[in-house]
């Protein structure tokens, strides 16, 4: 009986040691950025990161807004340009060093006169900085069906 107990204890110790060794060698998940929402992430070099980028509009061709966040990981301030689609002018967002600018109606508002894609599709957004160049990413287009997106939609056009 004592022999079986010793084998059991030895097996448990070996399993615990193996588990500790495996967990010590694996990366910590919280070290990696994720998009906890419906938006996407984009990295522009080592300096700029776009987080949770998505476009809200009522319909294709209607006014829209780009929401999310722009992070400057360098110590010096920069200007980040955001170009939505092919025909839009770039919106410029000034970001201080080591800081984040939220893109929403309560902070920095990036409006789009006419969104070139319908809700449910994606549209290319180019994120660029003078120091790191540019990256283009497919950003989802959503409508205000789901909360809290409904509160960020541009107002509906008034019919006369």
From TrEMBL:
This is DNA modification methylase. It comes from the Bacteria. The keyword Signal applies. Keywords: Signal. Residues 1-24 form the signal peptide.
